[in-house]
Amino acid sequence: MRALRILLVVVVILGGLFVIVDRVAVNFAEGEAADRLRTSENLASTPDVSIKGFPFLTQVASGSLDEVEVGIQDYEAGTGDGAQRIRIADLRADMKGVEFSGDYSSATAQRATGSATISYDELLKTAKSEPTQVAPGVTANVVGLSDGGNGKIKVRVEATVLGAKLPEPVFVLSSVKVVDGDTVRVKADALPKFGSVSLPESRVRKITDFQQKIDGLPGGIKLDKVEAGKDGVHITVKGSGVRLVG
């Protein structure tokens, strides 16, 4: 019995040491992955990287991690024109089946899902912010975006008719969706009226409707769905064969 108790104590001690070593190793790996991701994506700050699953060391031995969560604040995404950038306030990705190379220089996830948030002020940069002539004597421009409720965007438009600015702005409820996996499109559900002036739909939509391409997301993930929220548009992202580092 005494020998059994000693054996049990040894097992408990070794188990505790294994847990400590495992947690130290995973913390080190998370820090290394975060630093490499910051460098490869040219990020302004170090992202959050969390490796899930226990034990970590057995996952390393198999060459694959069950799940890795990544969080990036204020990510500067491309817009397709090579110059303008759009800031994503909060980008998060949950990567499954992350396999890494033998020298640990690269890691790729079999699939990834996540979310991103773009503020209305940031998205407003895409709209017609400068007054544009939509008909002889009539100019208009989008001056604000906000939550319209039920997944809609409220678009605020100001207009000038025959040199006189309309006393009240025009508000339009618009639908928002993802097209082509890399573009957020905003389209008015119903066309606004600018005083008593009747305008062709095509001209009005040049002001009310707009779209923003968003590319160059980390690891090649793509936009999936989008919905308007209180603080901006909330986008779900997804991808397969997503590069984590390397």
TrEMBL record:
Name of one Pfam family that matches: LmeA
Protein name, UniProt field: DUF2993 domain-containing protein
